[in-house]
Design goal:
Length: 266
């Protein structure tokens, strides 16, 4: 295993740049921090670029033969420079971003699809991705205003599930219904506090059909462009002293109602 001891090493410098969105986009790479994430990435067959292993790393990790020359033993100081957390993990990898298209979301029968509009909190986005993966969502669509999928906080909050579910970004959200219905006719539902359409209790909807569930930011809610395309406007009952639920909680409630209706089994 090669060793790197200098912060001036070019590979270290390039890796540190991945903390910034523009560099992640330009290189098509992102950071995976910590043993659990690196192990899951390797086990999932995610395309790995490089692995940086701390001098005190003592866990069992099966590094494929083709990656042996991409694994580097580094100082804790270097790991601290690369890491995005206050306490650096003992291993960090860089990996290639997954590239999906809309058609990939429709590779299953009777899909259930999430549209996330203008989500600004990377922690919320990551938590929703984790919940979506757990509840058998077919895929996720992000509008152009949503936070970067590969933001390190999103990667961590997803519990390293971002490469386990198709995620696609769109720019023309005013035509999303038209775009998706080219693949399969779906019913569209959005969470809302008010609207022209009659609000319906989230649990009164039949989720045993191809569904698109649309959620907006906590501060602004779903955009008018998306709300106008909804067949249903959904509401979640709550104590009237509470203005709203956390976005990831709202999403989880509705996703597990759909999961329940679709006969999940323990």
């Amino acid at each position: 295993m090669q060793e790197i001891t200098s912060l001036q090493n070019n590979l270290v410098k390039q890796t540190v740049l991945l903390k910034q969105k523009k560099n992640r986009t330009a290189s098509n790479l992102f950071l995976i921090e910590g043993f659990k994430g690196v192990k899951e990435a390797l086990d999932s067959g995610l395309k790995i670029d490089n692995i940086f292993i701390g001098e005190n790393f003592n866990k069992e990790l099966d590094i494929p033969e083709n990656l042996k020359d991409k694994a580097y033993k580094v100082t804790d100081h270097i790991l601290g420079k690369i890491a995005t957390t206050d306490t650096a993990p003992d291993i960090i990898a860089t990996a290639y971003q997954k590239d999906y298209e809309l058609k990939d979301i429709f590779s299953v029968q009777c899909p259930i699809i999430l549209v996330l509009d203008n989500i600004k909190d990377p922690g919320n986005l990551g938590t929703i991705i984790r919940t979506a993966t757990a509840s058998n969502v077919s895929g996720i669509i992000l509008t152009d205003e949503t936070v970067d999928l590969y933001n390190p906080k999103t990667v961590r909050a997803s519990a390293f599930n971002i490469w386990k579910i198709p995620v696609v970004k769109i720019t023309e959200k005013s035509t999303i219904k038209q775009q998706l219905n080219k693949f399969e006719s779906c019913k569209f539902a959005a969470t809302a506090l008010k609207g022209d359409k009659k609000l319906q209790l989230y649990s009164d909807i039949d989720y045993n059909q191809p569904m698109v569930l649309m959620f907006g930011s906590e501060s602004h809610g779903i955009s008018d462009e998306l709300a106008e395309q909804a067949d249903y406007l959904l509401t979640i009952p709550m104590n009237n002293q509470v203005e709203s639920l956390n976005l990831s909680v709202s999403t989880g409630i509705i996703l597990y109602e759909a999961f329940k209706q679709r006969s999940f089994k323990i």
